[in-house]
Amino acid sequence: MSFGSIYFDIIPLYILAALVILAEVRDIAFYICSNWIKVALICQYVKHGSWRQSATIQRCIGCVLRSKGKLIRNWEDKMGQSSVLVLHPIKTPMALLRHLIHLSGNTKTPSAVKSAIVGALRKGYETGQINGDVPSFQRILHLQGDDKIIWTFGERGTAEIMLVCHIATTILGARLPTHQPPSDTDHISAANHISQYCAYLVAHYPELLPEDAEWCKSLYKAVEKDAKRALIGNYSRDSWMSEVEYRRRFIQLLSAERNHEVLKDGARLAEQLAEEGEEVAWKALAAFWSEMILYVAPSDNIDGHMKALARGGELVTLLWALVTHLGIVGRSDNTTDAATVDV
């Protein structure tokens, strides 16, 4: 009994406590060595004349400023990627490990994503929609050129809109493993990458979004759980199927009455987009996602972005810094989305 108590109860507890302490020490070191704290120290040093008279404070500030920050991960021009729908599950030990510890894939930010976001920002200035605030989200998805409305989101919150369009984008891009994907145009690349990045934010860093973080996480988990239940055992790899039939299979599975409303709306939206033609649909989705990521960029959650900078930075944090320097500090609707829908 003594042997079991020591080796199976006490030692794992000590190991867990040590890991927690090490994680906290690492976060403190990240914060102290970050560029953020260096700028803050310089500002305080300039503002307080007494600091400039103290040799001790000068030495401490000098040590912080000279620190190389080797523990700090600089932003590697990568964006997190996550998805509610896993259309091609890979049954390997690494894939299982990634699922168990909730790791998300990171990919280098494509130039198409940067061009789409900057293009949306430039368009907002040219049309006069941006004037100190980003324009309120129109809650519609429309075709580019003729402004035909494809879908109206009503009173849904930002996270719900993201997940509905993420599901539609994923279904529209579904390809059989045996089929060659189409040429990766800028619209397809921008829409797919920003879509998966927004899903990644909802799942892992909802505090950077304009909604309640816990509600966003619970919504993502509920939708993900329902998607797995709907798709389990229905992953088709028949090479004879056309892309249209392949997508139709997923639309039928996710449109079932018992599924979550977000799943059903995402499937219906995918069906409507497919009817418009892929080229037109991808152009509309690329415009939608670039406007969406700009809409969520303004934030007053400075602590959340500081933590993001300490762990290497996030794309949305860079956009937050960019729009803040441009004088964009809020949204023209000046409201925080209310999460009132049951998950």
Automatic annotation (TrEMBL):
Ranges of residues in domain DUF4220: 8-85
Record protein name field: DUF4220 domain-containing protein
Native species: Triticum aestivum
Taxonomic lineage of the native organism: Eukaryota, Viridiplantae, Streptophyta, Embryophyta, Tracheophyta
